[in-house]
Amino acid sequence: MRSRPLFVALFALVCAALPLAHAASNAPKSKEGGGPKLGIQTWTCRNMNFDQVVDFAVKHGITQLELIKAHMDPTAPKEETLRKKAILAQKGLVAYSFGVNQTSMDKEQNRQLFEFAKLMGMKVIIVEPKNMAEWDNLEALVKEYDLKLAIHNHNLDTTYGNPATVKKILASRDRRIGVCLDIGWVTAAGFDAAQVFRDYGADRVYDMHFKDKVTETDAKGKATPVDTEIGKGKANYAGLFAEIKKSRWSGVMAIETDSKAFAEDPNRLVAEAKAFFAKQVKQ
Predict the structure, then answer these.
(1) In terms of Cα–Cα distance, which of 35, 46, 102, 41 is closest to 74?
(2) Which of 181, 188, 184 has its CA nearest to residue 247?
(3) Going along 4-138, which residue ranges are E strands?
(4) How far apart are CA 143 and CA 145, in angstroms?
(5) Rounded CA separation 241/210 (Å)
(6) Given 98, 179, 195, 249, which is the most exposed site by the fewest CB atoms within 10 A?
(7) Is residue 191 part of a domain?
(8) Are strands 64-67 and 37-41 parallel, antiparallel or unpaired?
């Protein structure tokens, strides 16, 4: 009869361990060190239609797509959205995000973005609100839909060009509001991408725009940021990938270019970016 208390004790231990095992099996990939994924921001393919973008992604073996309105319109009829979603699924492609979106003070207008993202199965929406007052209704929608918003940055003279501005928003808002770190632009604004990534915290960086820029000076001495091949510009990619590995960040780095010349035929840019990405991940 002494074995019964021992059996009960062992059974209790097993039952207590089951929830822990279940939680571990469902841990976020970022905790498992899966590493970053390569994607494409379809602004890079802005001269193509939807079907051409699909073919381009398949050709280059890139499955993660961040779509722009020209390729998928959030205000389009539901049937059209589902038709394109089915095409993507058939080709093994994932529309993981959408942007960069302008938002408004009209909560119901912003709701269209969230309904679209929910229908598509997206987890994050990329935004760049012009008016800081918009964050109240955007945060309410984030909580209602349980979707993430990622703040995109451009140059220093834009609303979110200074990382300090973004950090203030992160500190005061729901943790589902994070960052889409545009590596090219944050570098052009005079900041080190690796340091900015570290300061934001890997858990608040939901997406990255994978691009590079150099500075060109005209005859009048005016300096202008200009896109170049990824890895050949000023961005501190060595430091950034070191931070990515250290933090075990596993989001998407979406190839993007603002260059009209590269967008005319993005094949070489994307092929070289893919090779550069693979090399950095392996180091």
Answers:
(1) 102
(2) 181
(3) 37-41, 64-67, 94-101, 124-127
(4) 6
(5) 12
(6) 195
(7) yes
(8) parallel
CATH number at 235 reads 3.20.20.150
Unique residue bearing structure tokens 């099996």? 25
Residue 104, amino acid: S
Q: pTM for the full model?
A: 0.88
Using a 10 angstrom Cβ sphere, with 0-12 exposed, 13-18 middle and 19 or more buried, the burial of residue 126 is: buried
Whether 29 is in a domain gets the answer no
- Give a yes or no: residue 13 inside a domain: no
Which residues span the domain enclosing 44? 36-282
Q: Structure tokens of 134?
A: 């918009």
CA–CA gap between residue 247 and residue 111 (Å, rounded): 33
Specify whether the backbone of 156 is left (phi greater than 0), alpha (psi in -120 to 50) or beta: alpha
Closest by Cα among 282, 275, 123 to 206: 123
Residue 21 falls inside a structural domain: no
User: What is the count of structural domains for the chain?
Assistant: 1
pLDDT digits (tens, 9 = 90+) for 250-264: 999 999 999 999 999
Each residue's pLDDT tens digit, 67-109: 999 999 999 999 999 999 999 999 999 999 999 999 999 999 9
Tell me which H or E stretch contains 36.
none
Q: What is the largest CA-CA distance in the chain?
A: 96
Dist CA 187 CA 194 (whole Å): 10
Task: Return d(Cα 171, Cα 173) in angstroms, integer.
Answer: 6
